[in-house]
Write a sequence for this structure.
C-alpha cells in the first residue's frame, strides 16, 4: 500500500517543477500534471486516482521479476549499511561488483567473459562506442571508426546513444547523429516487406549491411550494432536467417558485432539473451533493464576475451562513471538473477507464458483493425491497419491510430505503448496465463471502442 499522498498537490508540483522524460511539457501542463503512480505489486501498478493497471510494459521493458520483491529491498538495505558506495577507479573494486561480473560472465558464456559496469543502457552503448574505437587503434587499424546501425533502432538517449540509434525524429533534436555512424534498412517485414517472402526479405536487409560496408570501405568499419529484436522501434522480430547472414557478413570483413540486449536480455525472449534465442554470437553485449529488473539503475557491457587481450596492450582505457560498478546496484542485480534462476523464469517464458502469449494474440488476427500479431517470448506486437489483409494505415500515414487505441487500453486498465500504429507489450516474466488473457481481452475491447474514432480518420 502507498502512503497517503496529496495527489492534487503532487500533480501541481509536477507541472510547476518536474520535467518528465520524453514529454511535451505543454501537454502535461494542459493535462494538469502526470499520472502519479504510487505503488505496485506483482504485475499491477496503482495510480493516485485509484486505478489498478495491469502493467503490460513491465515498467519500461524492465521489471522482469515483477513488483514488490522484498528480498531485493533487503539486499539493498544490507549492502547500504555495509558499504553504500565505493568506486572502481582507484585500482579498487567491491565484493558485489566482482561477484556480479562473474555471475554475468557465467550467463553470457563463451568468450564474453569480461564485464564493464555502467548506470544505464545509454552509458553501456557509450562504453561500446569508445571501447570499440579504442580497440581498433590499439590493434593498429586506426581507420576503423565507422559504426553501422539501422534506421529505427533504439540505442539510448545520450549523444552516442541517439546517434547510434536510427530514430530520425530524435536526430533532429541536437543535430545528430555525430559523424562516423551509418544507418541501413531494418528487417521490418510487416512494414517494409509486406507480401514478400520473409526469408528473402531478411536476406535483403542483411545484404544492405554488406553494401554499406563496401560503400564505406571495409577497412574503415569498426562494428555493426543491432538489437536482436528491436524494442522501442516496435517489437520488430527479424525473419529467420537474418542474424546468421549479418554474423557471416561481419566475420567476412572482420567487423565487430554488437548485440544491444538492453531489452532482450534476462529472459525476455525465452533465453537469457536474445542472441542466444536467435542463434548468433556477438563480440560485445550491452545490457541493462532486466539485469536489476529496474529496482536500481545498473547496466553492463560484456566484452569478448579477444577484445580484452588487445586492450591489455594499450594502457589505460580512460573511461568510466562515478557509478560504474555501484555496489548496491550490483548486489540487487545479483539477487535479481538469483530470483530469475530460482523461479525458472527463463524457461517459463520459453515453454509456457511465451507460447501462450503468441496463442492469445493470435485470437486478435480476425479483428478488422488488426494487420498482424507477432511475439517472441514476452515481447509482443499488434499492428493496427485501416483495411484488413493489408498494411495500410488510417489517414494514409503512420501514427494516427496507435495512440487512440493505447489510450483506450489504459482507460480499460492495461498499460501498453503505442509505437506509431503498433501496440507493443513486454509484461513482467511472472505474468500468468489468466493475466495474459486479460491483457489480450483488453486490447480487443479497446480496438472495438476505438473503431468509430478511427473510421472517422479514414
Ligand atoms: N538500448 C536499447 C535496446 C534500449 O531499449 C537503451 C539502449 C537505453 O537504455 P537507458 O537505460 O539509457 O534508457 C534502451 C532503452 C520506449 C523506451 O520508448 C525504450 C527505452 C528507453 C526509454 C523509452 O520504448 N529503451
Amino acid at each position: 500500500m502507498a502512503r497517503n499522498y496529496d495527489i492534487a498537490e503532487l500533480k501541481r508540483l509536477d507541472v510547476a517543477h518536474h520535467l518528465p522524460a520524453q514529454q511535451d511539457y505543454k501537454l502535461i501542463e494542459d493535462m494538469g500534471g502526470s499520472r502519479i503512480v504510487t505503488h505496485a505489486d506483482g504485475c499491477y501498478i496503482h495510480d493516485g486516482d485509484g486505478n489498478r493497471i495491469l502493467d503490460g510494459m513491465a515498467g519500461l521493458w524492465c521489471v522482469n521479476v515483477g513488483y514488490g520483491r522484498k528480498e531485493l529491498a533487503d539486499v539493498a538495505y544490507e549492502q547500504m549499511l555495509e558499504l553504500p558506495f565505493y568506486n572502481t577507479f582507484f585500482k579498487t573494486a567491491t565484493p558485489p561488483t566482482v561477484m556480479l561480473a562473474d555471475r554475468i560472465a557465467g550467463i553470457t558464456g563463451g568468450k564474453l567473459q569480461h564485464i564493464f559496469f555502467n548506470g544505464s543502457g545509454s552509458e553501456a552503448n557509450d562504453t561500446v562506442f569508445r571501447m570499440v574505437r579504442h580497440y581498433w587503434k590499439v590493434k593498429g587499424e586506426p581507420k576503423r571508426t565507422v559504426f553501422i546501425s539501422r534506421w529505427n533502432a533504439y540505442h539510448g538517449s545520450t549523444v552516442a546513444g541517439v546517434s547510434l540509434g536510427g530514430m530520425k525524429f530524435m536526430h533532429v533534436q541536437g543535430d545528430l547523429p555525430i559523424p562516423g555512424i551509418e544507418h541501413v534498412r531494418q528487417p521490418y517485414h510487416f512494414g517494409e516487406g509486406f507480401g514478400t517472402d520473409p526469408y528473402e526479405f531478411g536476406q535483403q536487409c542483411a545484404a544492405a549491411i554488406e553494401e554499406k560496408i563496401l560503400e564505406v570501405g571495409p577497412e574503415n568499419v569498426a562494428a555493426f550494432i543491432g538489437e536482436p529484436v528491436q524494442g522501442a522501434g516496435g517489437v520488430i522480430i527479424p525473419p529467420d536467417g537474418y542474424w546468421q547472414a549479418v554474423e557471416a557478413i561481419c566475420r567476412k570483413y572482420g567487423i565487430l558485432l554488437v548485440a544491444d540486449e538492453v531489452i532482450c536480455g534476462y529472459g525476455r525472449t525465452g533465453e537469457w539473451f536474445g542472441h542466444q534465442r536467435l542463434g548468433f554470437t556477438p563480440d560485445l553485449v550491452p545490457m541493462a533493464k532486466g539485469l536489476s529488473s529496474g529496482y536500481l539503475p545498473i547496466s553492463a557491457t560484456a566484452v569478448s576475451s579477444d577484445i580484452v587481450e588487445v586492450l591489455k596492450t594499450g594502457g589505460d582505457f580512460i573511461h568510466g562513471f562515478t557509478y560504474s560498478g555501484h555496489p548496491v546496484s550490483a548486489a540487487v542485480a545479483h539477487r535479481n538473477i538469483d530470483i530469475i534462476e530460482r523461479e525458472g523464469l527463463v524457461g517459463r517464458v520459453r515453454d509456457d507464458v511465451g507460447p501462450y502469449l503468441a496463442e492469445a494474440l493470435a485470437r486478435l488476427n480476425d479483428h478488422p483493425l488488426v494487420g498482424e500479431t507477432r511475439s517472441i517470448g514476452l515481447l509482443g506486437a499488434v499492428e493496427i491497419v485501416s483495411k484488413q489483409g493489408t498494411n495500410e494505415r488510417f489517414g494514409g500515414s503512420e501514427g494516427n491510430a496507435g495512440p487512440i487505441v493505447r489510450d483506450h487500453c489504459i482507460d480499460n486498465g492495461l498499460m501498453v505503448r503505442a509505437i506509431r500504429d503498433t501496440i507493443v507489450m513486454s509484461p513482467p516474466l511472472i505474468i500468468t496465463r489468466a493475466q495474459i488473457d486479460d491483457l489480450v481481452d483488453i486490447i480487443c475491447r479497446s480496438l472495438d471502442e476505438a473503431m468509430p474514432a478511427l473510421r472517422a480518420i479514414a
